[in-house]
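Subject: mismatched residue count in predicted assembly?

I count 575 residues in my input, but I want to confirm that the predicted structure covers every chain. Input:
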Amino acid sequence: MNTGSWDIEVHGLTKTFGTVEAVTDLDFTVSPGTVTAFLGPNGAGKTTTMRMLLGLVTPTSGRATIGGLRYTELPRPAATVGAVLDTSGFHPDHTARDHLSVYARLGGFARSRVREVMDLTGVTPFAGRRTRALSTGMRRRLHLATALLGDPRVLLLDEPGNGLDPEGIAWLRRFLRELAAEGRTVLVSSHVLSEVEQMAERVVMIRDGRLVAAGAVADLYGEAAVRVRSPQAGPLTTALLAAYPGTVRVEALDQDTLRIHGLTTAGIAADAAARGIPLHEITPERPTLEHAFLHLTGHDQGDTR
Amino acid sequence: MTALVSLGRLVSAELRRLAATRLPMWGSLAALGSGGFVGLLALVGPENFDPPVPGLDTAPGVRMLLGLLGMCAFVPALLGTTAVASEYRHRTITTTALFAPRRWTMLAAKLTAYAIAGLAYGLIAVTVAGAALFGAAAIKGVVLGLPTATVLALLSRIAVTMAVYTLVGVAVGALIPNQVAAAAILGAYFYMIETALLLIPGVKELYPYLPGGATAALTGFTFLADALAEQMGGGATSLLSAPLGAAVLVGYALVAAAIAVIAPLRRDIT
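Triage response: the counts match. Full output below for your records.
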């Protein structure tokens, strides 16, 4: 039995479908207590990896374990791991409550759990509605409720934000953070960085089935960057580099647009004003997934020096 | 012991899953319908058919009506197929596989649950048909051409056939995840393929062991076997005993179920 360490561990994991390598020699570990984002563009192999962790897809080679065991080796899998995989997966005749009752029985969980998870995930208001009539957001909540029936220590969620409205996403963020704070292991996949950056503290990034990076989300940001548009972009670059040698880095994005690293918006505005350089735009930049990939892989491009 | 407890849990979950769909409603209607159809024929009276056949007061007349009921056994088979294939169609199979990753146990639970449902179907159908047979005889003021005990025995054999056919349907549904294809293959086999197979020289000897032959042994209705003997000369094909026929049918269901389990063990659920 597991003595309390519910790590998700992936070692040398590879899956080929015919001649297509969906996942190649993947290695990473996800620890309990925080939300970990599983990031990558569509088709990067996130879903395949999650399905291998859940025993739904057999790896070509390598191991994918939860608490040191393969999913199918877990003594009570549904009481250990909860998973949300897609928005389908309901019998159209079943009501939300029927669906939960079937799986509560299948997992051997108390009938009272159905009521509890419905309240927890906000399913109660539509508990009596047939699943054929549920919206995408409701389906997401019902899947989450199903995953929580066994009060699992580990949660795997594949693109849970898809189809949720902003309010739903905010709710999901809060909810998953709370679950992680209770000491659960939470892995959430997404292809949109902004969706997970406010809830995840750690990140595993893959692309083309291979690991790009794994670490703290804070590391994604690298140094702060500010986007500046000015008709005198050239003189501004020269002035800033001269004023802060070695601490400021400037990327020329366009003829009149710069990305400046190492200065705040206030600092740049003050410097520009002091030199009489007009600014048409000054925006603090949040990194996109693309930037984060580039930053983490050390392939920054477009530096002027 | 724990394995039994967990199987019981899964069976109860499968029954709950089935009960919450509209299938029990359609199933009950179909069972009432097939029983009622035979009842209607009994009321009309076989002697009034076109062409006329022996009436209710003759053994062949009663056997023929019960034989027609027996032929309705493919309906619960189709319902079983539909129920299991819908797990794939609606993709609930993913969640089910997560909650019960040991697929042998999962399929065993389904087979058990649907054996119960199939038997319920059979009991409804034979109760209605039986009541109609005796009722029609009473109305017409005749005595059924078979002893009551024989009629009751034949009716219970038909109920068992329906339960076993449900199992066959479930196994086929598990084997062929495409709902429409599974139903079409099942229907085509019982209506065309088996009869066509019998035209191949030598296959006739195997007839007692084919699903149709085993069904005939179980229900005690031997239209096809008799017709074969008549048309091809040679002696009447001897059928298996009723319990052996049931065992052969259950065997087919188990083989199909085993293939259904072994195949998805290598099949990824994507």
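Residues 85 and 177 of chain B are 5 Å apart (CA to CA). Marking this ticket as 'not a bug'.
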